[in-house]
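Hi R.,

Here's the input for the beta-D-galactopyranose complex you asked about:
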Amino acid sequence: MFKKIAAAFFILCTLQTVATGQRTFIDPGAVWPDSAGLHIQAHGGGIIKVGRVYYWYGEQRAQGLDTNYRYVSGYRSTDLMNWTFIGNVLQLTDPEDLGARWILERPKVFFNKKTHAYVMYFHLDDRRYQYARVGIATSPTPEGPFRYLKSFRPLGFESRDIGQFIDDDGTPYLIFESRPSKGFYIAGLSANYTEVNRQIAFIHAPLEGGAIVHYKKLYYVVGSALTGWRPNPNKYATARSLSGPWSEFKDIAPPETNTYGSQSTMLFKVAGTKTTSVLFMGDQWRPKTQWDSRYLWMPVTIGGGKLTLPPPHPFTIDVRTGKTWQVDPSTRFPQTPQN
Ligand code: GAL
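And here is the predicted structure with beta-D-galactopyranose in place:
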């Protein structure tokens, strides 16, 4: 009985949000308008939760921006479906004399509870991707403006794609891909989050777009092959400890789908009162029209050492309970419980 009432209530809420113009589901691969109706610009991004608010930071690739700058955008949400643009939280001119077409990619923001600072890491590079460093910018608020601090090669290694992982105890980790060592590192941050100060693991697999989730006592790492903007079969491995040993890598989806045309940027865990869902966040890049690149977010099937990205379909998520439902976009009704 209670379940029926709860389901009816949920559907009522959904109907209400339809009436108020709120988004009631995520449609992987579709244009995703923010609250102002503009396609979200947060590519190669990442999400953090501070209190009840989710912040999504990513590459701002809108058309018509001043090409002397690189921009990191910020969005906020309380339900992961409706996002409000909070501005270009970082606006930076070439900070290290890198020359024309310098690169700022895959920004990730950590919130340091002790210092109350927001610390952004990003991939900083020249047009030939030879500088291979991380850049750091900080802000006292999630809305910015973030101020550039410095750049370095983490632990002395070349670093290109970066990923962010925050463990259940709040410990922050940076994942970074290193071409010369043909693999990627999981590394710990200093107390103030502005240094990368210890190697946790080196995973000897030529993968980038690194993402990690801790789910039921197992760590799952996902990465993509090194094919630039072209999608490829992303793979995963597991370990009981972040420091390994890590299992062999397996495909997260049928390899012929090339991860449904996407590339991993983060695995995001939503631990609710009823269940825990894990979202795969990927980018469907459109290299010639980057502003139109899409997001492929999907709840993964995970557990017992297996992780699978199902064929994309519209879904809704209830961040309170952690539940997700498959949605039929023609009726906009949450229909099939996903978990
Ligand atoms: C991808 C990488 C992107 C971007 C691109 C450039 O492999 O994940 O972030 O650097 O290459 O070709």
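One thing worth noting: Residues 8-19 have pLDDT under 50 and may be disordered.

Cheers,
M.
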